[in-house]
Specification:
With 322 residues, this protein is an alpha/beta fold. Helix content is 39%, strand content 17%. It contains eleven helices and eleven strands. A six-stranded mixed β-sheet has the order 8-7-9-6-5-10, sandwiched between helices. A hairpin with a 7-residue loop joins strand 5 and strand 6. The chain starts with 18 loop residues before the first helix and ends in a 9-residue tail after the last helix.
């Protein structure tokens, strides 16, 4: 079950000197990522893949009905010369083909085209796909909020509806691995709730406390965890100090772990609409990164997601104890 991950940001281009630009600069020195583009049969999704190829970020393999792909290219005035196209009859088959190629090592990433997110992920999570790992898959937003001095990762706001403790452990580890790929060596992870104290009647506070202890025992590695923390205590030093919270994480979080998909989705949308945030994002936890770009995403943010996929694909995930 997924929730649509894209909302039109107020800004249509990556601002100079922003975290999105930083991602692009980090990726531009790497070779292009061979990427299966699933069902790019409309002008917007096809243009995104072609532009990413032009910028040297991906080497796209377009998978879908070849007649519709060519019609979309003609409508958008795009030249598909030199691009590989695999002709399949419909979107279900395109998703399955992309997974098969990824499992065989023929592509290193998957990009969503003009099909529903749940249709693509149904193929990815299938036991036949060959893409599942011992991790639960989760989505990570990388947000550039103008008023915040560092990248802000939010998870999971798109995939796992009401994650239990074991799933939250994987969500946290996936987000830490994403931060590592972005050259954030020891990200500060805030486990969010409505309050900053453990309350037996609030499951999110119990999970937060358990996750912190799991990090102490090596079940989560590579980051500094604290929680439960309310949102203000996680991102504002002043708010944390006013509450008397002594923590290496409070007020300086790099990663925000939300209690459930509803709170995460609302948080992400608020940052988009009220704080002029820009974003990239990936599904983590599969054998290859998966870009859930939307047809309505501005071009610069599509490119930032491609850059993030390059960094993640070349990063070795952390190992933790089961």
């Amino acid at each position: 079950m997924v929730v649509e991950t894209s909302i039109d940001p107020q800004a249509s281009n990556a601002r100079a000197g922003t975290q999105m630009q930083r991602l692009l600069r980090m990726a531009e020195v790497r070779p292009p990522l061979r990427t299966a583009v699933v069902h790019p049969v409309d002008a917007l999704s096809l243009k995104g893949a072609v532009e990413a190829a032009r910028c040297g970020l991906i080497e796209p393999i377009l998978i879908g009905p070849i007649g519709r792909i060519r019609a979309a290219a003609e409508a958008a005035g795009l030249d598909l010369g030199g691009l590989e196209v695999i002709d399949v009859e419909h979107s279900h088959r395109a998703a399955a083909q992309a997974c098969e190629m990824a499992a065989r090592g023929q592509v290193a990433a998957i990009m969503k085209g003009a099909l529903h997110t749940d249709e693509l992920l149904e193929a990815v999570v299938s036991s036949r796909s060959g893409l599942r790992t011992d991790r639960r898959m989760s989505h990570v937003f990388v947000l550039d909020v103008p008023s915040y001095p560092r990248p802000l990762l939010v998870s999971d706001a798109a995939l796992n509806i009401a994650p239990d403790l074991a799933t939250k452990r994987d969500i946290v580890q996936n987000a830490i691995d994403c931060a590592h790929a972005m050259d954030i060596p020891e990200p500060r992870v805030a486990i969010l709730s409505a309050v900053e104290t453990v309350n037996a009647k609030m499951v999110s506070t119990l999970d937060a406390a358990a996750l912190c202890k799991m990090a102490d025992r090596g079940q989560i590695v590579g980051g500094l965890l604290d929680g439960p923390l309310a949102f203000d205590n996680a991102i504002s030093v002043e708010a944390a100090e006013a509450k008397g919270i002594r923590s290496e994480v409070a007020g300086r979080a790099d990663i925000l772990i939300v209690p459930d998909i509803e709170s995460g989705n609302m948080l992400a949308k608020q940052l988009y609409y009220l704080a002029n945030a820009q974003s990239a994002g990936l599904v983590m936890g599969a054998r290859v990164p998966i870009m859930l770009t939307s047809r309505s995403d501005p071009e610069a943010l599509r490119l930032a997601s491609c850059a993030l996929a390059i960094l993640v694909s070349q990063h070795r995930p952390a190992k933790y104890q089961r």
